[in-house]
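Entry 14. Ran structure prediction on the chain below.
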Amino acid sequence: MNRKLNTMTKKEQLPFVTVKRIKEIFFSINESLLDDLSKTIKIDMGQEFGFVLEDNLVGLTLRMFYHYPNDLQNYLAEINVQNIFEIENLKHFLVNETEIRLPPETITTIVGESIAHLRALLAKNLFGTALQEKLPTLVDPREVANYFYPQMFEADTSIEQLIKDANF
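Output, structure tokens:
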């Protein structure tokens, strides 16, 4: 695969990112399972990432769910929020047919915005319920992005590695 090398400064290489859509896909709460609010409630998060190269679109769906630590079968609450972003010249970040590698700053922005959208919709939906004051703690979006997408933070995304990969 031929790659066009970009020799601009790091700041100039960052693509322009636009939020195209925020959609709450699913929300549920089962207050009948909340027998004691003093019990520890665990909050977990998952993700699904995809892209449409021809349209310069990246999608990140975040899923957050509340449960008691020893009960992964019964969710106290769950929300799924889809975030669609337009990334300028997405094709420049294509690794292969199924993978893109965005700059760390870009994936961090996408993850941070997606978490903010999820948190806002979750707060709206939990209002007036027993869980309304059990919002998730604030997180560092760079740490979350690095956890979910460590390949986008690897040192081998340097211009030197791109030249080596292109066999120049």
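The chain has one domain: 16-155. Will compare against last week's run tomorrow.
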